[in-house]
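[Meeting: bench + compute handoff]

Bench side (C.D.) handed over the final construct sequence. Compute side (W.E.) agreed to return the predicted structure before the next meeting so the bench team could plan truncations. Sequence as handed over:
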Amino acid sequence: MNMKMLRSAACALAVIVATAGCHHKPVAVTPIPTSSPTGVTDTTSLPSTIPYNAPPQNPNGQPIPPVANSDLANYDQNPEKLAANTIHFAYDSAVIRDSDQANLQAVAQELQANPREALLVEGNCDERGTEEYNRSLGERRALAAREALAKLGVDPSRVHEISYGKDKPADPGHDEAAWAKNRRDDFVVLTPKMGA
């Protein structure tokens, strides 16, 4: 009889230990803002380290309305003029680093010195992650630059943004050195076409 009780107690203890060892708090995946009703279908490679950014705001705290990219056809695009001022991001981040503040200052000065110009901010990612996730991350990176430029005195209605996700790599390599170059915002100067 004692042997049966001992076995039952051992089994109960084993179940308790096994159950306690498997219990953990689930890690929440950051929701990805998307205009697509289907959302993300593959969440296996989504990191959970990017906080959702609130809509960008002017220095006065008011939300910055989005600018329609439909009128980009009315501009000549010059990607070379500010090519030296590209800013880069840490892995899975849309936070602008202190080391890139001088580049943003240069972009703001260019726009302030040339009031006819507008700007296209191109958000880019490295090749890791899903297409949907990288589109969203590229958009957040472009919006972060737009918000930072607004804080530097640039009228946000002059700043357009687009996300290329992982479709426009600066370096086609498949290692950390290439990925670091690809996590970036490029700045394209927009000049109104004649007659536009």
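W.E. noted at the follow-up: Confidence is low (pLDDT under 50) at residues 20-59. C.D. will use this when planning the next construct.
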